[in-house]
Amino acid sequence: MWFTVRKSNAMKTQSVIEMRSDTGQCMISHQQESAALGTQPSISMDSTQGEQTRLVCRSEGWSPVPEVIWRDRGGNDVTSLSNTTVQSNSQGLDDVSSYIKIKQQSNVFSCLVRSKTPKLDGEYKLHISRLLLLLLLLLLLLLLLLLISPLCCTGDMTLDPDTAHPLLILSVDGKQVRRGETRQDLPDNPEKFDYRSCVVGREGFTSGRHYWQVQVGEDTDWRLGVIRKSAQRKGGFSLAPKLGYWTLKWYGDEFFAGTALETLLPESLKPQKLGLYLDYEERQLSFYNVETKSHIYTFTDMVFNTNEELYPFFYTWDNNIDLVLECPVTNPNPNPNPDPVSAGD
Fold it and tell me: Do you know which InterPro entries this protein is assigned to (predicted)?
């Protein structure tokens, strides 16, 4: 008895029951290993090794073992200088940890974690009836209409005029905002900003993963990110994480992450369109340059109360350019970009 096993198909014999001396019958079980994409990678600094500080990149829940690539500020591959370990977790998936030693003056590194799952190389033949072909064409047309429709989002995101500073001018559809020349006479309420020209999204998030984009264009003074519901809104104060603000800031010709002591970012990372990716359960907020599909910065260990609402946050002091909110996505793929997620320090 002979069995032919193709290269891309793993098969094993479960049992063979002899019926006659010259004929056999068997059951074949096809086992196909399913691929699993891990969590968004995170980078932390470890200085417990003595003489030299190191950056540690971690990601969990992969199958099969992913590829880890390190790059320096100039985009050069420095993976050969790193050390990577893999451990299986209780779910039978792989957790990867990789570290690279750095000098004190080094300031920007990125860690890319991506799947190494190959494409299947088997041959497939598909026989489609005319009726089925017609149905497929109709489905494709429907999908195309959904892609080009302005109502492409099931969870539509708009700006909340009740929170907007009186100087801000919002569009009728709640998708655009800019600073006006004169202060509007509007009723005050506890949610409204009265000192900084800020506004937040109408709907807050209490769970899940969320991704949205903001067209910043040539706006010369903006801050974008997320705030918690309990964050201060009245008076002048620092837009810092300890007060419930996690933001990126562009002012003049300088780019900052709104950490406790603002972190200066390379000007080359400044986007025309900014992507924001919030993972509520992981308490992480990541920023991406949509055009270049590159990672800019990630806030980790965000501090907020259990089930506390988090709101998209917008600030602008430019009265010539609108900030434009684009179609959001609820519970997106952990990697909102086609390219592998890259996490920086």
Answer: B30.2/SPRY, B30.2/SPRY_sf, BTN3A2-like_Ig-C, Butyrophylin_SPRY, ConA-like_dom_sf, Ig-like_dom, Ig-like_dom_sf, Ig-like_fold
Q: Which two tokens stand for residue 146?
A: 């959904």
C-alpha span between 100 and 55 (Å, rounded): 5
316, 259: one domain: yes
Instruction: Kindly report the CATH number assigned to the domain that includes residue 79.
Output: 2.60.40.10
Span 59-111, pLDDT tens digits: 998 888 889 998 877 788 888 988 899 999 988 899 999 988 877 544 567 88
Q: Which amino acid type is present at position 303? A: V
| Among candidate residues 46, 93, 1, 40, the one with its CA nearest the CA of residue 283 | 40
Coil vs helix vs strand at 122 = coil
pLDDT above 60: residue 227: yes
Long-range contacts of 23-28 (CB under 8 A, 24+ apart): 26/1, 28/3
pLDDT at position 2: 42
Q: Do 78 and 111 contact (CB within 8 A), yes or no? A: no
Q: In what order do the strands lie in the sheet with 176-179?
A: 168-170, 176-179, 323-330, 209-215, 273-279, 284-289, 294-299
Host domain of residue 282: 159-326
CATH number of the CATH domain containing 201: 2.60.120.920
- Whether residues 171 and 308 fall in one domain: yes
CA 305, CA 261: separation in Å to the nearest integer? 23
